[in-house]
Design a protein that fits this description.
heterodimer, A: 402 residues, Glutamine Phosphoribosylpyrophosphate, subunit 1, domain 1, 5-stranded antiparallel sheet, 18 strands, 27% helix, B: TIM Barrel, 8-stranded parallel sheet, 3-stranded mixed sheet, 29% helix, globular
Chain lengths: 402, 510
């Protein structure tokens, strides 16, 4: 690492402040002049017993939905993939050039104890080109440093994540969670999977995504999944309520720099699950809220609860067509919009819960599931690693029931 | 020279004698006495100088024999010293008085709503058909916590979530349109009856204005906001508890910083009883509340009213003035559950014309800066924002909500639905439509059931239109439009105004 005293960042920046501009490189944090619209394919699989599966499974499933993407973006998230560093924040970085790498490494070294770093292993694949520099860092938060900032460890990491994405041109954090990582780029998902050598990883949860952006050039950072801490989101659809969701998050201190609606989905889950400590099934009911006509028919105490949830989280209501899969440290959640304007199918076989845009993508990797079903609009499918408490919920409800 | 006036009539009233049936209805209908029947000829002889172009006579003439036209009298042209300004000088030179006017600012300032355009979905995200899918306009006004806390309770074999957070009382309205405060005294009891009946049927709120609540309206209390203004007319413990919320009126968009004056002629027996003042005396509302000279004083009154009402929501109505964002922030921090912003086009029964036409700022700007300020301070959930003062259509409502309002209040539009023709002579107390008058022969012209039906029709129609707008925007709940500047674009606004509004120019995508 090169020490460059001329560019001191002065430690962790305060919320809302920016790192000084470090150069005139092509920005990696602004998606494009125009927003991203499009159709997509997605999948997720979670083994509730924590048995790990090869990443090849997710790649094969996505490959069957080749036509749902147009080769301008594909990606995967795997959980449980770094058993040798389970408690480190694994920063998966994308760099436009060496300068961006040096700036970021200087910054990371100031903020974290880096116990291991390496280029992310890749192999040459026909169709994958113009890849950025890909590097990963296994970081610990220094206890003393944390105390100085008076932040929680999670907030500390979030600040670092936002600082790099909004402050260092040419640098982009693909993911920064523990025992997980995002592998994404421009290409069809099966090409991306091959490029990142996902067959060499094993994880208990995998999510995958193929993009069909309609009016922008593909961009490595803009591929899904989109991550924050241990959360990863793959998303098919468009959030028509993006404008108010963004302002709502900004008033809670989030910096939204990517101009992509997937970003708001990720941050809304972070706000509700981590900062407001809502159980995930309740967060889903706030994001894809039941209709008033249904709430009106509920028993008095349920009506009171759902009325409060809707009135308080109205600005966070996700409106518009979407299917999303949220990967988490202890499970996976799939959710449709309130009137199911995008496809989502689910299945279970033994301990494994599968979700995908198309049933064929599930049957590709699990030909005869015990059960498959079409989740109803706004009703989450929740897979939980055995023993996972999932927020405040005292009792796990099987994925099929939710 | 003493009797000579230089101001010539604004309108000319003509009777077509070939059509006229000499029935005398015009003379009967006109509250200002424009038409006098000539005993010899049997035809009406109009006095154009009294005409306000309210069309009452035109509407009720069975022969369609009446023509009201603009007086074409030519004035020597001057862009600077318009005929209106010259007439004002003449009238003041004659009387030495402050000129009064009714209704809202009618001057040709920039109408920002008319320079804002809404978005719609095409291809990549589907629009939603409100005739086939649920489309939710229901809105809750009041203080909301920042987050919801949950606990799980046993439910049969399993558990279910239960609300742990204690919620403040919220006002549920079925459409984001409420009625602005219009006092009994300035408008007739039949107007109040129409509003109360309509509010109940629509599931929304009427507002008493500052003149108290007539005993006949007790059955409608779940849909009535009672106002407590500087004159404290008709304010007592039972009154405060007679509604679902209390509003402290600090200011009004039509006359920011100015008190009110209801002339003694309008204080008949019933108004006198309701307002708790002697019959025939002028009802003077002071400019400030004489117990509110600072934000701390406001806080005391807010909590006094909450104590008196068992913690019903308290709304604070302020006029949109230059420093509105900071004032609104202070009002929210003082404990208000609702901030009611009244823009400079808001209506009134009577205001000094100079104030009505030259003081305050447009509601569009006020909504945007207040909403942004409350968000910046992290207190947006603590209070709802009602926008009023110049809301003329469902498009205005949708745009106001997109700028950040929780709901809109309408007043002038309601009176127009009841027959008001915006003649702006409310202060004369002789409204031929029976709206802004207490004369029994005039007030009885407004049948409350007919009036309620007209208002229900109007608000229902607007609500359908808002549902259509939401559907085109691809969202099925009004909260997904609320504060979403992203769904607005400006056309023909200067850059600074766009920045204040937080709206991009048309032609720019996401």
């Amino acid at each position: 690492m090169i020490d460059r005293p001329a560019r001191k960042y002065g430690g962790l920046t305060l919320p809302g402040t920016r790192i000084p501009d470090v150069g005139r490189r092509p920005s990696y944090t602004v998606e494009a002049e125009e927003g991203i619209l499009g159709n997509c394919g997605l999948m997720g699989v979670c083994d509730e017993a924590g048995e790990r599966m090869s990443g090849e499974l997710a790649v094969r499933s996505m490959a069957s939905m080749h036509d749902r993407g147009n080769g301008l973006g594909g990606g995967f998230a795997g959980y449980g993939i770094y058993p040798e560093h389970p408690d480190h924040y694994a920063f998966h970085m994308m760099y436009a050039d060496e300068d961006a790498r040096q700036d970021t490494e200087f910054y990371l070294a100031r903020q974290f104890a880096i116990d291991h770093e390496e280029p992310i292993p890749t192999r040459a694949v026909r169709g994958i080109q113009d890849e950025p520099l890909l590097h990963r860092y296994f970081c610990r938060v220094d206890a003393e440093r944390l105390q100085e900032t008076q932040l929680s460890e999670a907030d500390y990491v979030v600040h670092a994540f936002m600082d790099i994405n909004s402050g260092i041109d040419g640098a982009f954090v693909a993911s920064a969670g523990r025992n997980m990582g995002a592998f994404k780029g421009v290409g069809f998902p099966e090409e991306i999977g091959e490029f990142y050598r996902l067959d060499e990883y094993a994880g208990w949860t995998w999510t995958g995504h193929g993009r069909f952006p309609t009016n922008t050039p593909g961009w490595w950072g803009g591929a899904h999944p989109f991550c924050l801490l241990d959360y990863s989101i793959v998303h098919n659809g468009e959030i028509s309520s993006y404008g108010i969701n963004k302002r709502y998050l900004e008033s809670h201190g989030y910096q939204l720099t990517l101009r992509t609606d997937t970003e708001v989905v990720t941050y809304l889950f972070d706000l509700m699950l981590r900062r407001h400590e809502l159980p995930v099934e309740i967060a889903c009911r706030a994001l894809a809220a039941p209709f008033w006509k249904d709430i009106d028919l509920m028993a008095a105490d349920d009506k009171e609860f759902y009325t409060a949830l809707r009135t308080v989280y109205g600005p966070g209501l996700l409106n518009g067509p979407f299917a999303v899969v949220l990967g988490m440290a202890d499970g996976m959640v799939a959710l449709n919009d309130r009137i199911k304007l995008r496809p989502l199918v689910a299945a279970r076989d033994g301990n494994r819960v599968y979700v995908a845009s198309e049933e064929s993508a599930i049957r590709e990797i699990c030909p005869k599931p015990e059960k498959s079903w079409m989740p109803r609009a706004g009703e989450p499918v929740i897979a939980r690693l055995r023993g996972a408490a999932f927020g405040a919920a005292p009792q796990s409800v099987p994925a099929e029931v939710n | 020279m003493a009797e000579v006036t230089f101001t010539r009539p604004e309108f000319r009233v003509r009777i077509d004698k070939e059509l006229c049936q000499q029935c005398g209805r015009c003379a009967h209908q006109c509250g200002w006495g424009v038409h006098k029947m000539d005993e010899e000829t049997g035809y009406p002889v109009p006095d154009s100088s009294k005409c306000g172009a309210c069309h009452r006579c035109v509407t009720f003439c069975p022969a369609q024999a009446i023509l009201v036209e603009k007086n074409p009298l030519a004035y020597k042209g001057s862009d600077s010293f318009s005929p209106e300004l010259r007439k004002a000088v003449w009238r003041q030179a004659e009387t030495g008085g402050v000129l009064l006017a009714g209704m809202g600012n009618d001057k040709p300032y920039l109408r920002i709503f008319d320079h804002l355009l809404l978005d719609a979905c095409q291809v990549t995200n589907p629009s939603i058909d409100p005739l086939r899918e649920p489309m939710e306009l229901r809105t809750f006004l009041g203080r909301k916590p920042d987050k919801v806390e949950v606990e799980y309770v046993p439910d049969g074999d399993g558990v279910k979530p239960k609300l742990k957070t204690e919620m403040d009382r919220l006002l549920q309205i079925e459409t984001p349109i409420v009625f602005g405060g219009m006092s009994y005294g300035s408008v007739s009891l039949n107007v109040h009856r129409s509003l109360a009946m309509a509010a109940k049927e629509l599931g929304t709120l009427m507002n008493t204005g500052e003149g108290g609540l007539h005993a006949d309206l007790q059955p409608y209390q779940d849909n009535i906001v009672v106002q407590c203004a500087s004159g404290r007319f008709g304010v007592h413990a039972d009154y405060l508890n007679a509604g679902c919320a209390v509003e402290i009126k600090i200011g009004q968009g039509a006359k920011p910083g100015i008190g009110g004056h209801l002339p003694g002629e309008k204080i008949n027996e019933e108004v006198s009883v309701t307002r708790m003042i002697p019959q025939g005396t002028d009802a003077l509302s002071p400019a400030p509340h004489h117990d509110i000279y600072s934000i701390e004083d406001l806080r005391q009154l807010i909590y006094a009213l909450k104590e008196a009402t068992g913690y019903k929501p308290v709304s604070v109505k302020i006029a949109a003035v230059h420093n509105v964002a900071a004032i609104a922030s202070g009002v929210v921090r003082a404990g208000a559950d609702i901030v009611y912003l009244d823009g400079f086009r808001g209506g009134t029964g009577a205001a000094p014309t100079v104030i009505r036409d030259h003081v305050g700022i447009p509601i569009e700007l006020a909504i945007s800066v207040v909403d942004q300020r409350l968000r910046d301070e992290g207190i947006r959930n603590r209070a709802s924002v009602i926008a009023a003062g110049g809301i003329r259509s469902s498009a205005d409502v949708a745009k106001a909500i997109a700028l950040g309002a929780d709901a809109c209040a309408i007043g002038s539009a309601l009176l127009v639905a009841l027959g008001c023709h915006l003649c702006q002579k409310c202060h004369t107390g002789s409204c031929s439509w029976g709206i802004c008058t207490q004369k029994p022969e005039l007030t009885r012209r407004l049948d409350p059931e007919w009036g309620a039906e007209r208002i229900v029709n109007l608000v229902t129609a607007w609500s359908h239109e808002i549902a259509e707008i939401l559907g085109a925007l691809g969202v099925n709940a009004v909260e997904s439009l609320r504060g979403s500047h992203e769904r607005l674009r400006s056309l023909g606004l200067d850059q600074q105004t766009q920045e204040i509004l937080g709206v991009k120019p048309a032609g720019i995508g996401h």
